[in-house]
Amino acid sequence: MKSALIVIDMQNSFLHPDGENYYPAAADVTGNVKRLIAAAGASRTPVVHVADRHRDGFEDFEQKRLPRHCVSGGFNAAYFDGFGPTGKRHEIEIVKRRFSAFFATELALFLNEQAVEQVVLCGVKTNVCVRATAQDAFANGFEVCVVKDATNSNRDHLAKASLEDMERYMGRLVSTDEAVEMLS
Q1: Containing domain of residue 106, as a range?
Q2: Residue 13 dihedral angles phi and psi, to the nearest 5°
Q3: What are the E-state strand segments in the chain?
Q4: Alpha helices, DSSP H only, in 140-175?
Q5: What is the reported pTM?
Q6: Are 24 and 68 in contact (CB under 8 A)?
Q7: CA quadruple 40, 44, 45, 47: dihedral sign
Q8: Preceding omega of 2 cis (within 30 degrees of 0)
Q9: Are the CB atoms for 51 and 12 separated by under 8 Å?
Q10: 176-183 and 30-43 are packed helices; what angle lies between their axes, rounded to 10 degrees?
Q11: Which residues contact 114 (CB under 8 A, 6 or more apart)?
């Protein structure tokens, strides 16, 4: 089964201590996410780097629930050091304006054109963008694997509940070690 790695929101906003949405536990996933990217790169598995970005000076529906964040061109919207596309042929970037990497983006089209059947999800935050992406991946007909130790949240109880829901209704949970094997 052909897979793709989807790396969600590894940006300064969440990971840098000066980030507007920083939470210290986010750093706990960086090592595992890097391992997944390296494994996918070694096997030339497609890697999709997802960035949450919003336009400066324009209203955005998401701002009704969240403060303005990840403004395009700014520090917070940039990838955290060591993350993001590196120019390799198997990597792409998807920019999103909502929680899901699928909503109003070309992600499903791209994955289908690459004959991808399974997506492996990692990044931040489990209960928001990872969960929304998992739900839409399932709705688009992809097998979903969430790397449970390569995603987390600043609200641990919501992360645990989201992982339980994703496993029950959308796909399966795997460890980084299992995912590295799948991607290799």
Answers
A1: 3-183
A2: -50, -40
A3: 3-8, 47-52, 91-96, 118-124, 143-152, 172-174
A4: 156-165
A5: 0.97
A6: no
A7: positive
A8: no
A9: no
A10: 10
A11: 2, 4, 46
- Indicate which CATH number applies to the domain containing 121: 3.40.50.850
Are 50 and 101 in contact by the 8 Å Cβ rule? The answer is yes
Per-residue pLDDT of the chain (184 residues; tens, 9 = 90+): 999 999 999 999 999 999 999 999 999 999 999 999 999 999 999 999 999 999 999 888 887 787 788 999 999 999 999 999 999 999 999 999 999 999 999 999 999 999 999 999 999 999 999 999 999 999 999 999 999 999 999 999 999 999 999 999 999 999 999 999 999 9
Q: Tokens 């980030």 correspond to what residue?
A: 19
Residue 142 DSSP label: -
Q: Which amino acid, 115?
A: A
- How many structural domains is the chain composed of? 1
- CA angle, 47 then 53 then 57, to 5°: 160
Nearest CA among 9, 2, 3 for reference residue 123 = 9
Identify which of 109, 115, 121 has the alpha carbon closest to the alpha carbon of residue 171: 121
